[in-house]
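Entry 14. Ran structure prediction on the chain below.
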Amino acid sequence: MKTKINRLILPAERRILAMSDIHGQLHHLKGALEKAKFSKDDILFIVGDLIEKGPNSLDVLRYVMRLCEEYTVYPLIGNVDAYRLEMIEHGDALSLYLYFDHMIRHWGGCLLSEMCGELGIRIRTPLDLFSARPKIRKAFQRELDFLRGLPTIIETQRFIFVHGGLPTDDLAALEGTDAFPYLKNDAFLEKGLRFSKYVVVGHWPVTLYRSQIDCSNPIISREQKIISIDGGCSLKRTGQLNVLIIPSESSEEFSFVSFDGFPVRTALDSQEASENPCHILFTDNAIRILAREEEFSFIEHRRTGRKLWVPNEDILNFGKDARCDDCTDYCLPVRQGDRLSVIQETSRGYLVKKDGTAGWYRGQLKG
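Output, structure tokens:
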């Protein structure tokens, strides 16, 4: 896949919105746009990874296509979108089936399984899937053409939108080159790059930049001129779908709203924030199991030696090569009457979110 760059001149006074990494979550997409009060007066950029890992990839794709017809919307392609397009169009029988089987087992479905389901096609073997591909291409030509036509990069007067990241803002040097390095650019904020225009990216969940607390809010680096907006929607248990709000092309008064879809309840008790919290990330998640109980285990993070209790469901492997999912021992600062998004209820308290930050609440909730 070659790099395609669109260059736009945006109207001076229209509000600009940007979101990324919807990952098949139609409910989150609609909820986030509603919170942002999205209207026909706005310009919306969707910075890649529309599909996969969530339950509604095909519906999200069609909804975005409809938004493009009715509003001013500029979607870009993400690495997952591109990989899946390549797989559906060019994957060999075994690779296609292994992808299909992996997505069913780990995520409950995928774009391809939704397409097969809509056509009433049952998949039992690699040959079944390979034989179904011509029917899928024909039935979903409009959706596949839409994905295929998405640009890699969009440049405006003061902003550059790209899913993963860029090695330079000399975009002329990138046009026509392999697109994948700009779609999958892990930990882009940590590369030490600086740009002349603000580069708005998704791809890397922002919580992975935060080693002490689990916060899914966008990160704005004015020094580097990079804005990272992936809230981990669908990918992270505590994730959210962020909408960056830029008042106009000439403004740097950035703000955001987010939607996480969790039930909201009211805190009956106050608690203080815990000091020196530990936040274990999947990028550094090797642990030792020190004690195991029915619901929780006491673990030690191998690299730092930090010890904490974590729910057993967050431990990916209880063997000698034990690893865990993202987890934290942080207790949020909470005041009586605060509204908290409830992620998980346990015998040791609630895992909740407040203002985009996840942590534990030991008090009582109502509502």
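The chain is about 25% helix and 25% strand. Will compare against last week's run tomorrow.
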